[in-house]
Amino acid sequence: MCPAESGCNIRDEVDYGILVYFQRSGTVISPKEVGFMVFTTFIKCQICGFITRVRLQVGWQEEHPIEVACGKCGTSLSGSVKIGQDRPGLSFSFDNADEVQDENADYIIECSGEFPTLKQVEAADLERLVITPFIRYMNCMKTNDSYEEFGQDVSKLNATAKKWKNYKRILNLAKNNSEYLTQEIQKEFFSHFFQCRDESETLRAVHMIEVHGFYSSLRKDILNDLSFSAGILKMDSAQMKDLIDFLNSHDGFHLEELQELIYKVYDEFMVVYQRLIPALAIQYCKDNSFDFEYEGSTTSSFDSVKQFYLDVYEALGNLMIIPVALNNIKYRSDINAMNPIEKNVKSLEDYIKLTKASRYHFCLDSEDYTGFLKILVNAKLRNAIGHNDVEYNSVNQLITYIPNPKDRTKKKTEYLLEFENEAMRMFQAILGFSEYLYRLRELELMHDGKIPIMVQERANWPKKIGRNELCPCGSGKKYKRCHGR
Questions:
Q1: Helix (H, G, I), strand (E, B) or coil at 54
Q2: E strands within 46-113?
Q3: Residue-wise pLDDT tens digits, 324-349
């Protein structure tokens, strides 16, 4: 129901001339037709009774979480909002707070499912919130196309979320080598592209979940230059076989175990991804566009993303051996020729004995296979979380931690939005690892003598194929619309 029709005391506001709901020939216009708006409601803390005015920047999502704290007692007032995009209407739900018809607020908080927002202020500081999150964001984009690109990428993630139940089913069937795998793949993808006639085609079909579901929105650079990851297939064959054999002979590092680890992270990401969208928004903006002291997130809290952060960090620590070994082959012609960063690490066997924090020391921007990952990680903060040496102020969203447990007098701080940015960047690095692992699994099949059917068929294709000729793969499509792409 439209707020104007509900009789409740919730006010619509104008966002620099962009109206929220308005009457045109007696018709209420929805957010999709008009654009961004600011919508106000009031919530009363069930603990201390203080009132917070919530100014919601309505975006393009159907629903998203809200995580705010009472400015008086610090109680978490978490909840969610459902937004009528095709049909006007908003509905809020909060834990520890009730919506009230009262304009005498003690505190004001901006909320947005898409953008960083100014942190909570006292009601007397309303003038600080004149410029809305949408307008502030539009003023700091990298390019004129950045906002549209951001919106498209979030929409792709939302589409992945809607399909995730089916995608996850395929991943589980692949893990168990189920006889029903091909059937489920062909339900999701065009069957003539994914015939699954052999293990190689099946592997590629399953990998398309990662390509469509994650690469296309979060790591487009993987797709923009496929020659980078495909180059793994052309590296020294004997060294690559040694690497695969090494991994498969060590518990926790088998190719299948590493793949399962990545799939587990994907599943966790789909649970929390909406909470990380304001952090993702930062990547489309100019450097230093945000002041983390004053700007934060209202889709998450430290507790709601902490476990995901820890799990991604741990997963990366195991996966790191792949790009490190690839660098050893590329730069030093031997999987065991370690970069002399730590004097006692002379081989991959030494490397896997290191703590995960120490393994990150080998993640060098100067060497291709680690540099491509673009990892952003704070090992000291992760260790502090593990030792419970962390305090979080939910009102100013400040994380205070002890970086060295041997010297508890020294403390460091990091803001929630920075923490979320690290979590997002670590997850995006996981996608780079996944592409490396996919290439290793291709090589594993070939080392086992399983030459892909498509490779055998292409050997007999004409050297030149006209763009408008039928594709030799038998799909029935013109070459330019099929493998000519």
A1: strand
A2: 51-58, 63-66, 79-83, 90-94, 97-99, 107-112
A3: 999 999 999 999 999 999 989 999 99
- Closest to 6 in 3D by CA, of 90, 86, 93, 66: 90
* Phi, then psi, of 24 in degrees rounded to 5: -135, 110
Q: What residue spans of 54-119 are helical by DSSP H?
A: none
Dump pLDDT digits (tens) for 296-306. 999 999 999 99
3-class DSSP assignment, residue 470: strand
Calculate the average pLDDT of the chain: 87
From residue 471, how far is each of 208, 350, 465, 475, 478 by CA, in Å?
Answer: 21, 50, 8, 7, 5
For 225, the token pair is: 């230059």
The model's pTM is 0.87
Token pair belonging to 94:
């909060």
Residue of 299, 262, 255, 284 lying closest to 417 (CA atoms): 299
DSSP secondary structure of 167-234: HHHHHHHHHTT-TTHHHHHHHHS-TTT----SHHHHHHHHHHHHIIIIIHHH-HHHHHTHHHHHGGGG
Helix (H, G, I), strand (E, B) or coil at 424: helix
First vs last Cα of the chain: how many Å apart? 47
Report the C-alpha gap between 261 and 413 in whole angstroms.
Answer: 30
